[in-house]
Amino acid sequence: MSPFVRPGLVLFLVSGCVSGEAAAPPASAPLIGPSHLAQTLSAAGRAAVDRAPVTPLFFGTARSCAEAVFSAGTHFYAVSMRREGHTLLVHGVDQVHSAAPDEGAADQAQEIGAAEGRVSVRGRPATVLVNEGIRSVAWEEDGGFFSLEVECERPFEDVRCTEDSYLLGEAAALVSLRGAR
Amino acid sequence: MKALALVFALLVPSMASAQFTYRPAGELVPGSGRGRADATVYAPGIRFPIEAAPAYLNSQVWGVGGYAGRPGSECDAANRSFPWHDNYCESRSWGMPMCPSGVGHQGQDIRAATCDDRTHYAVATVNGTITQIGSYSVYLTGDDGRRYDYLHLRDVAVRVGSRVARGARIGRVSNNFGSSSTTKHLHFNIRMTVGGYGSVYAPTYMSLVRSYEALLGVSSCTPHCEGSVIVGADCGRGNCAAYGATCTTDTLGTRCVYAACPARGTADVCLDADTSAHCVEGLPASTGECGAFAAYCSTAGRSATDARCVSAFCVASPEEPPVAHDGCWIEGGQLAHCDAQGSISLERCPAGQACTTIADTTSEGAHCAPAVCPPTGDVTQCIDGRYIARCFGGSVVSAGDCGAFAAYCSTVSTAGAVEPRCVSAFCVASADIAPSERETCLPDGTIAHCTAEGGLTDGMECPAGTVCVLGEGSARCETPAADAGSATMDGGGAGATDGGGALGADAAFGDAGGSARPLTGGCTCRVAAGRGAPGPGPGLWLGLLVACAFSRRVRRRVG
Predict the structure, then answer these.
(1) Which one is predicted more confidently, B145 or B14?
(2) For a Cys-Cys bond, which of A152, B37, B85, B390 suits A86, CB 3.0-4.6 Å?
């Protein structure tokens, strides 16, 4: 380590996109604008953003894109980021994979659409799902089918995974990197 | 030793395939909740996510040693046995839009071949990209955007962003649950976009069943139904619905049952209006073409499993129960007898006679009577100056009675011969007189208008102090002369008419109920015809409508 670099600065640089204390409430607005975030994209990240078939949403609460991992394919876009004690993932898809199932044949129809998990995200109807402690919210935006997920190292103790507020706050703060330079 | 290992490696899949059975989608471990009976393969063609067979799909919560299962070790042999059980939608408190209760388990628990920790590899189901690695999850996203979630692995062998090939090792099956732990199993999800739901955890079970069969390289199935699709013991699939059948599993096994046939026993049913079938245990053993014999397949008036052919001559539709009656056949002037079963037999009339549906003193229905129709052809003609008859093949197959409406059947007009129609007896004195536009007196003292076609229109009462008087060629309302009496209204038949003729109804047809009375009430337009026989022609109906019109005339006072 260079003697001219203070330990605190090292911590800041390593944390990259860390948004702060785990228990801190999520920001409702980006801390740093999309243009600034876009400037921190790696070449691979920039390529993935440019290839994204859906709006390339990114965590508006992050300070940098440097430690996020971007992926994109013909029909999907994803960005994953590890933060202290948890990971975040945005996953977007541009197509419906399966037509609406025949609920009559499945003998399910009467209770389909239960209100469990219904919320509003980014001004759109959304559904919160929990999978083995991994909390996610799904919504449609600009023709894309998105989900935002948070997975905690301590899934049954970390309020970011046991309650919706952190997840929904992060969803509200997502920004588009498309066109941002 | 290596040779022995190779033999064992070769044997294991075949042993596994010999044992492999699975319960239908949606059938959870008893007591573990309500599954989704959905046989859809939401991720067709995927590679089974455990590298080697055997593997076991069941519930890690409701299995032996599980939180809600029988006490014991998670390594109990019962946790690694067939048949497989679906555990998508198994009881949970978490929201799950595609589950019947709206909550449930998102994916499928899979146990590897043995209970050994960090021994069995989870592998990529498709070519794709690793899009997330969390504390206890690895997500693989296929190029189409479907995402495959692997939970509880250790020794993860991939990195976020890396491309992996189908079958590539991702990590080892373990009990990793972040800071906590679970049983040694792979929790596997398919996250994808489903119409009507958006991005959801889709049912996984049947996709895993298919991929496991592919892994085994054999087709070993428990015969079952997947909706209308039947899956045989050889895993062959067929859609019963393509043959108008449903898939049924009962004591006879899994089989297609024809929609029209009862699942069990024998029955005679109608497949459609023309075709009957003899059903045996849900399938048509033989069929009969009623239509080839001018008959309907009918169950009208009897059980739906007691079908028979019913002559189309005897009933108007397959829904009409047959009743015994006679009709006129469509050729040779023959009499046709329909029995109560809808069967028909023909009878020739005596020489000089033919079948008619015009009632007489001996018969209300079809019977033999002196022939009045041409021996062949389909014509409409007047009979006895009273009936508009449709002749078909020498028989009177239907007839309208103008006399019932105080009218004649007439074919004359001032312009020459016309199609048969009813002409009011208040407008002409006989069937061979052409009607003309004029006023006429009716027996009830009203004055009415005769049209050029012989129909009566308005009947109006004369103004107070006047009576209807028949004058030269027409009638009018006049103040009666002191010595004139009411001679004009006696309805006295032909002798009281002028040259145009009027008021001759009762003279013409004694059964018409008097000259005026039939005209003042409503009318019932009745046509005599055999069931299934050719109906009245348009000319006949037109004539009857005219008759009805004047019998339903609007009465109003002259202003």
Answers:
(1) B145
(2) A152
